[in-house]
Amino acid sequence: MNAPKIAVVIPCFNEEESLPTSLKKLWDCMENLSNKGKIANESLIFLIDDGSTDKTWEILSEAHKRAPEKVKAIKFTRNFGNQAAIFAGLKMINFFDVDAAITIDADLQQDENKIEEFVEKFNEGYDIVAGVRENSEEYDFIKKQTSNLFYKLINWLGVNIKPNHSEFRLVSKKVLSLLDLYRENNLFLRGLFYELGLKTAYVNYSIKERKFGESKFSLSKLLCLASSGIVSYSTKPLRIIFFLGLIVAIISFLIWAFTIFVEVGLNHDINAIEPYEIWESFISGVQILSIGIIGEYVGQILLEVKDRPRFLIDKELL
């Protein structure tokens, strides 16, 4: 069996501090795998500048000049987000006739040495090989708890995603061809690849310490990604709202019936002002929450109906 031609796809957003070191490490890793006959000599690195405002594009341009056949890059007109950048890279590497693509973060906190295991699993016949975090010491307490809560919630809602599954994954040529069938603008790649139902393997890895710069994934961005994932792949929140509304309506009717019975049937006045105020506050909270959830779905419908491009490319180094 011939060694597969691999493309490593890297989204970049303001990574001028980490890119020089990361590119060297990744280059050495791929050279080592090529010398061992694990991957083809024609394997390449494909980088996406997601609207960086620092010197990221200059670094990518210099890397392309040094090895134009091995390093390819595109630059977005503005920041379209991590999911759009990864999707763009996976779409465009089809032009290079690769056998598989591997996505990894620009800071290489994900272990690039695990690429060899990814390739081995691919050679065993797996179409998707996903990296799963073993440790999370680099995450602060709030981010860890939010991540754990998200995976529990999204699995409860019916999307059975592997916990701690990241964007560090290998996908085969078959998967790349199937991406053309997915035209939605609201991208949540972890759910998308799960939905394909193709043969999937998992490789555990440990997060490395980030030595340069800061993570571009703030808590607010992670929460937005989580919200997008839930809305994209589950309608269960809408059913929860329906049943919650039904329960509230039944309880309200029982309170009303009890009040009528006591005041009219038993001819007693009851002082229920304070309980009513608490109940009304609860009802108001439920209404606001329900409107917010419905608003998320309506907002996603609006974005899909507009059918605007997922990304716009300003420059290419191909």
Describe this structure in words.
The chain has helices at 19-35, 56-66, 82-92, 115-123, 141-156, 173-178, 189-196, 219-233, 236-265, 273-306; strands spanning 6-12, 44-49, 71-76, 100-103, 128-133, 165-172, 200-205, 313-317. With 318 residues, the protein is an alpha/beta fold. It has one domain (6-234, 309-317): Spore Coat Polysaccharide Biosynthesis Protein SpsA, Chain A, CATH 3.90.550.10. It has an eight-stranded mixed sheet with strand order 7-5-6-4-1-2-3-8, sandwiched between helices. Helix 5 packs parallel to helix 8 (219-233) and helix 9 (236-265) packs antiparallel against helix 10 (273-306). The longest helix has 34 residues, at 273-306. The mean pLDDT is 83.
Number of helices: 10
Order of helices and strands: EHEHEHEHEHEHHEHHHE
CATH superfamily: Spore Coat Polysaccharide Biosynthesis Protein SpsA, Chain A
**CATH architectural label:** Alpha-Beta Complex
- Overall average pLDDT: 83
* Stretches with pLDDT under 50, minimum 5 residues: none
Fold-level CATH name: Spore Coat Polysaccharide Biosynthesis Protein SpsA, Chain A
Counting structural domains, the number is 1
Which class of secondary structure composition applies to the elements? alpha/beta
Which key features would you list for this structure?
318 residues, alpha/beta, Spore Coat Polysaccharide Biosynthesis Protein SpsA, Chain A, 8-stranded mixed β-sheet, 10 helices, 8 strands, 49% helix
Note the topology.
Blueprint (H helix, E strand, L loop, with lengths): L5 E7 L6 H17 L8 E6 L6 H11 L4 E6 L5 H11 L7 E4 L11 H9 L4 E6 L7 H16 L8 E8 H6 L10 H8 L3 E6 L13 H15 L2 H30 L7 H34 L6 E5 L1
Parallel strand pairs: 1-2, 1-4, 2-3, 5-7
Antiparallel strand pairs: 3-8, 4-6, 5-6
